[in-house]
Amino acid sequence: MTLADGKVWKNVTIPEKAKVAETLDEFRAAHKYNFLDDNLRAFNAEVPIFVQWDDHEVVNNWSASKQLPAAYTERNINVLAARAARAFHEMYPMRESIVEPGRVYCTMNYGPLLDVFILDERSYRGPNGENQQTTYGPDSYFLGPDQLA
User: Fold this and answer.
1) What is the tens place of the pLDDT at every residue in 28-40?
2) 116 and which of 68, 79, 82, 108 could share a cystine (Cβ 3.0–4.6 Å)?
């Protein structure tokens, strides 16, 4: 891509990003890849962030029922999700829940006027489907009962 000043933009690439992430090292590299960007590093040096994981940490729109595209040699979505979760927690350490290790959702209280709720809208959801449920239950979970409570 040619920029306004005539320079040609070339995206930085690394071998681990040449294919979909399947191994733990490839999931780690997906996070590290973002830190190659000077602008992101400068932003992170000055601005505190709250991190959250979502479907793109594993594969787009993943759930236990996800049918993986042909590009994946690892066909077990739960294996991929476990590797992605481990890489996420290694790259973004957070307070560990004694009740539920690896849990991402939490509430942060900042005095009497601000509570920040970080929701996990992926780990507790029901399977991908037609979304035609008429009652609330495991097939229609989005946040899951414990997180919702």
Assistant:
1) 998 898 889 899 9
2) 108
How far is Cα 50 from Cα 53, in angstroms, rounded to an integer? 10
pTM score of the predicted model: 0.80
Q: How far apart are CA 12 and CA 122, in angstroms?
A: 30
Q: What is the pLDDT of residues 53-77, one digit of tens each?
A: 877 788 887 877 888 999 999 999 9
